[in-house]
Write a structure and sequence with these properties.
The protein is mainly alpha-helical. It is 72% helix and 8% strand. It has helices spanning 3-21, 34-53, 58-79, 97-116, 124-153; strands at 25-26, 83-87, 90-94. α3 (58-79) runs antiparallel to α4 (97-116) and α4 (97-116) runs antiparallel to α5 (124-153). The longest helix is centred in the C-terminal third of the chain and has 30 residues, at 124-153. The N and C termini lie far apart (50 Å).
């Protein structure tokens, strides 16, 4: 699959994630991370396909690791932009406009790295977009759950 198709798939997934992030939802510790695991598996498959055909230099590996570290960092920051509150004895969460803006910036940075280092890692951002989303969403989920646990303990 070419880089444009990968980015298009990533953007469709991102649009769906943004929609879900802005929905008022119960915080449930027992919820299985199904979407996260699907993104992770598809991301690893997508990236491994890219790595089989691309020349894997130290620059490519460093860009990939750096990108995933940035994904995790954005996940932490975004998690603190999610509104948490207690209503009728239940804990709720909802992303804010800042959550959405941080998602957009995170994707821009991910794609921007590919543009910046186009000659040495052409197509890397497209090939790693789903893995990037999985890492970022996973870290966000962990931090939101941690915040929710602390909030629940004060109830």
């Amino acid at each position: 699959m070419d880089s444009s198709a990968n980015i298009l798939i990533g953007l469709v997934v991102l649009a769906w994630l943004l929609w879900r992030q802005t929905q008022k939802r119960l915080v449930r510790e027992d919820r299985k991370p199904t979407v996260l695991l699907i993104l992770l598996v598809l991301g690893v498959v997508q990236l491994s396909t890219y790595l089989k055909t691309a020349s894997t230099s130290a620059t490519v590996i460093l860009l990939l690791v750096g990108s995933l570290v940035l994904a995790a960092g954005f996940g932490v920051v975004r998690a603190h932009s999610v509104k948490l509150w207690r209503q009728d004895g239940q804990l709720w969460r909802q992303g804010t406009w800042l959550t959405i803006a941080l998602w957009v910036v995170a994707i821009g940075v991910h794609i921007g790295l590919d543009v910046l280092f186009d000659s040495s890692a052409k197509g890397l951002s497209g090939a790693s977009i789903l893995l990037y989303l999985a890492v970022s969403l996973g870290v966000q989920r962990l931090v939101v759950q941690s915040r929710a646990t602390r909030l629940a303990s004060f109830a």
